Sequence to fold (125 residues):
Amino acid sequence: MKLIACSLLVLALPFAVARADHPHGPPPQAAFDACAKSKSGDACSVTLHDHTLAGVCVTAHDTTALVCRPAHPPGPPPEAIDACHGRSAGDTCSVSHGDRTLEGTCAQHPDGGPLACRPSAPPHP
Fold:
């Protein structure tokens, strides 16, 4: 059960950090802190919820501040992909494992990849 919760959390993290490219909200402060003494294009790493992601410093949307964006975010777990099979981006979805169900929305990562169920809120381990 922890494996699926952690996998879904890892899926959600790149979406959160990738928000640097979109006006939906600010990236987490840790992503800004990771590039505080860097310049655009420098390698960086950011630790979010006990997961460290390697990335590159880029200018955050609508600001001059740099933010660490994962270079190659991990792919979604198979359960998240299966939950969106036959659905479209924006459709509601849920991923179940054991006695736990996480509600979310089908979405594609900004860098491509398969449509997968992105949890509405990070899972609690």
About this structure: Helices lie at 2-18, 29-33, 78-82. The longest helix spans residues 2-18.
